[in-house]
Specification:
The protein is built from 4 helices and 9 strands. It is of the alpha+beta class and about 180 residues long. It has 2 domains: about 1-25; about 30-180, Lipocalin (Beta Barrel).
């Protein structure tokens, strides 16, 4: 009889230990997510060509942007190019929609945004943006894998890409907004 009670107690302890272990593994700190949670201001975007040359083909030398990661697994990013678009001068969606197509195209050419879920793989040093909606319809449903480095208040995300007829690396450097830290 004591053996059965002991065995039942042992099984109960093992189940509790497994539940606690699983909960710990899924916490933001255990998955590496805690380091990302918050708002980050864009510092710079560089395109690094195979020969090492740094160019600024899409966003210019001084773009502005914000990337936000929340603890529940959602993220969003917005980038405005340098120089910033200055047309159309509409101050409402209705006015924007009735603006000339060339002005709307200029506004879209100078802006980039998407949102979705995010996951981290600390063993590979990658963060994946699971894009649900994007300014570019073809990106919807894509997984954007970026290598990451966090040093102090800086987050560097890099991705290999094939654009402009060549393979190169896109490097985005972000600075954590102090008041957004966890």
């Amino acid at each position: 009889m004591h053996f059965r009670r002991f065995f039942a107690w042992l099984i109960a302890c093992l189940v509790v230990a497994q539940v606690l272990s699983s909960a710990e593994e899924k916490s933001p700190a255990a998955t590496g997510k805690d380091e990302f949670v918050g708002a980050w201001q864009l510092v710079r975007v560089e395109t690094i060509r195979p020969n090492g040359e740094i160019i600024y083909p899409f966003y210019g030398k001084h773009p502005q942007g914000l990337i936000v990661y929340d603890a529940s697994g959602w993220m969003s990013v917005q980038i405005v190019s340098d120089p910033q678009p200055n047309v159309p001068k509409a101050d409402s969606r209705e006015e924007f929609l009735s603006a000339p197509a060339s002005e709307k195209a200029a506004a879209i050419d100078g802006y980039y945004a998407y949102w979705g879920r995010w996951t981290v793989d600390t063993t590979k040093g990658t963060i994946t943006h699971h894009i649900e909606q994007s300014l570019y319809p073809a990106e919807r449903g894509e997984d954007g894998v970026r290598h990451f480095v966090i040093e102090g208040d800086k987050l560097t995300l890099t991705a290999d890409t094939n654009e402009m007829g060549e393979r190169h690396q896109r490097k985005l450097v972000w600075r954590r907004e102090p008041e957004s830290k966890r």
